[in-house]
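Quick one, probably user error.
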């Protein structure tokens, strides 16, 4: 445990509200979004980059380990302290004062503690948004540290693509502050250092401020549920939609029948949109959008989508078995309810995988056949981003199954799934959740030695102090 002299020193840097030490006060920071549980020595809650720097410098000089924590919505134990009680949590939740919109440049300079929902609510009046669409509501710092993707990656890309600048505190004896902030979209004057801190789980430094690219809000949208004629025709359907719709296509989300059924069962307010209430084995939510307002004589987007789907339907060897256009808010409500629905259907063991787009359905078909052979009684409830190659491969075990309490069972399951995903299908074991303690062993196994040495060297140069939950 941390000596009380250190607690008092940190309190003098942060004030009474800036440091939590009571167990009840720290409980929310010690509990992760999915079954994680740790024990913090303290929770530091700085309100500025200067306070972050002071706390980090003190902790590095005194050998105190820190785990940066943003919105605490991560799913791989990346922001939760371990059980030792020796790690302090450095929360970004009070870094919320900075919000500077440059409407002409279409950029936002913001504090890392702001939540995505807050940012987009405030930007709405300007007709702009930060185009990362998620079911959770993270803070900006955590989104940058994990390089979040989301449901509209197909059109807008990930956080990395939409980050123009950062302010970062390094874990060294001085708490060095790097100002990598810029509103420039083109700047080839050397190494793009901000990329070192995006997607690396906070191990190389703590993001305190960011400069984000913004996009115009869609003024027109149309959505449809698509039922492919067979799983192996999904890639053909995606290509046909892209060829016909170009940049209009903003989402192409795959949803398994099991995941949809779990959402409908958990959220009674959802309307079952399928004929006679029969949920297909696999369904795709497709969205097209325009940022311009409707113009006189312009074909409505609903009509555009219907026309394209009709052409695909009538094509030779059509990849489409059924389709219907419907209200975007209803269709997205079902998509966003999947995560909670699956979570409440049993003990959830979740994976965030990615593949080449043409390999996703092959992987899913393979697992449907092989899962019962290796792990009987485990239900696959997958959904994800077919358009960018990502899939949330969720496995549900009944709550009364004795294997729920067996940590070795979950470890074996993870080993098997990751080995199939990486070794058989050449995929990634972490599409957009980054690296946390849950993925450490797989980082060590699947990352080439030369890359591990380079990453360890960067860590030693940028933040030699004990920072984060990942060992690079």
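Nope, works fine. Designed sequence:
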């Amino acid at each position: 445990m941390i000596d009380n002299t250190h607690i008092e020193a940190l309190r003098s840097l942060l004030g009474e509200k800036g440091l939590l030490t009571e167990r009840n006060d720290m409980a929310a920071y010690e509990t992760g979004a999915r079954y994680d549980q740790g024990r913090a020595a303290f929770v530091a809650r700085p309100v500025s980059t200067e306070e972050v720097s002071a706390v980090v410098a003190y902790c590095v000089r005194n050998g105190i380990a820190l785990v940066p924590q943003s919105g605490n919505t991560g799913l791989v134990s990346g922001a939760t302290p371990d059980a030792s009680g020796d790690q302090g949590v450095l929360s970004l939740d009070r870094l919320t004062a900075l919000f500077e919109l440059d409407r002409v440049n279409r950029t936002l300079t913001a504090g890392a503690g702001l939540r995505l929902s807050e940012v987009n609510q405030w930007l709405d009046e300007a007709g702009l948004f930060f185009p990362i669409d998620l079911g959770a509501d993270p803070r900006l710092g955590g989104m940058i540290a994990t390089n979040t993707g989301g449901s509209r990656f197909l059109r807008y890309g990930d956080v990395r693509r939409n980050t123009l600048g950062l302010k970062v505190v390094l874990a060294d004896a001085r708490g060095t502050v790097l100002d990598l902030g810029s509103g420039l979209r083109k700047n080839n004057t050397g190494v793009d250092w901000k990329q070192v801190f995006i997607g690396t789980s906070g191990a190389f430094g703590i993001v305190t401020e960011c400069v984000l690219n913004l996009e115009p809000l869609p003024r027109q949208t149309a959505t449809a549920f698509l039922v492919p004629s067979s799983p192996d025709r999904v890639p053909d359907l995606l290509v046909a939609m892209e060829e016909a719709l170009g940049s209009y296509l903003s989402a192409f989300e795959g949803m398994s029948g099991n995941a949809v059924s779990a959402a409908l069962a958990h959220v009674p307010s959802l309307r079952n949109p399928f004929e006679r209430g029969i949920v297909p084995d696999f369904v795709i939510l497709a969205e097209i959008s325009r940022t311009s307002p409707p113009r006189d004589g312009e074909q409505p987007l609903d009509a555009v989508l219907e026309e394209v789907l009709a052409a695909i339907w009538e094509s030779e060897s059509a990849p489409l078995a059924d389709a219907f256009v419907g209200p975007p808010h209803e269709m997205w409500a079902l998509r966003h309810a999947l995560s909670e629905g699956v979570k409440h259907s049993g003990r959830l063991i979740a994976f965030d995988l990615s593949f080449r787009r043409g390999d996703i359905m092959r992987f899913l078909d393979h697992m449907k056949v092989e899962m019962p052979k290796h792990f009987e009684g485990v239900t696959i409830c997958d959904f994800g981003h077919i358009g960018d190659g990502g899939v949330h491969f969720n496995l549900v075990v009944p709550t009364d199954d004795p294997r729920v309490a067996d940590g070795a069972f979950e470890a074996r399951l993870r080993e098997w799934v990751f080995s199939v995903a990486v070794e058989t299908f050449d995929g990634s074991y972490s599409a957009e959740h980054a690296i946390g303690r849950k993925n450490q062993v797989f980082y060590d196994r699947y990352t080439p030695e030369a890359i591990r040495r380079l990453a360890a060297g960067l860590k030693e140069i940028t933040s030699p102090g004990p920072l984060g939950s990942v060992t690079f």
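The longest strand covers residues 220-228.
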